[in-house]
Amino acid sequence: MALFNFNNQQLIFLLYRYLLIKNKKNIFALIKNNIYQVKFENIEIIFENEAKINLLISNNLKKNWTIERMNALIKATIFNGVFLIKFLKQNKKIVIDQSLNFIKKFFWNQEHKYINAILDNCTKNEFL
C-alpha cells in the first residue's frame, strides 16, 4: 500500500473539517455518504484516541505554544502523521516526508520544519 495516497489526503481534509466544526456525527455522515473515501475504522480510532493524541502533540510543542494556537490544517496533518505512525505502524521517515510534502502545497513559510520537529518528537515518545 502506498503511503499518503488519496485516502490519506482525504483523512487529513476530513480531520481538518472536524477540527473546524467539532461535530463527529457530521464527519461520520460524510464518510457514510462517500463524500470522503476514508475507512470508518480509521476515523473511529482517531476519535477514540483524540485526547491522547492531543496530549502527545501538546507535550511536544515548543514552550509558549499550545495546540489551540495551531492552524487546523497543520494540526490535521500532524494528527494524521501520529495516526499513521503510532496506530498503523507505517514508516516514520516516509510519513514525515510525505506530511511535509503535503503541507508545502498550502504553506510557503517554515511550517514544514515545525511539523517535522513535532512529528519526530511525537514518534520518539511512548504513546500514552
Report what the structure shows.
The protein has 128 residues and is mainly alpha-helical. The protein has a single domain, classed as NusB-like (N-utilizing Substance Protein B Homolog, Chain A), CATH 1.10.940. The protein is built from seven helices and no strands. Helix 1 packs across helix 5 and helix 5 packs parallel to helix 7. It is globular, with a radius of gyration of 14 Å. The mean pLDDT is 85.
Task: Set out the fold topology.
Elements: H1 6-21, H2 24-32, H3 40-48, H4 50-58, H5 72-87, H6 92-104, H7 111-124
Helix pairs in contact: 1-5, 5-6, 5-7, 6-7
List keywords for this structure.
single chain, 128 residues, mainly alpha, N-utilizing Substance Protein B Homolog, Chain A, 67% helix
Structural class: mainly alpha
CATH superfamily: NusB-like
Largest sheet: none
Average pLDDT reading: 85
Oligomer class: single chain
| CATH topology annotation | N-utilizing Substance Protein B Homolog, Chain A
CATH level 1 name: Mainly Alpha
Q: In one word, what is the shape?
A: globular
Number of domain modules? 1
Query: What gap, in angstroms, lies between the N and C termini?
Result: 27 Å
- Write the CATH architecture name: Orthogonal Bundle
Percent helix range: 55-70%
Task: Provide a short characterization of the protein structure.
The protein has 128 residues and is mainly α. The chain has helices at residues 6-21, 24-32, 40-48, 50-58, 72-87, 92-104, 111-124.
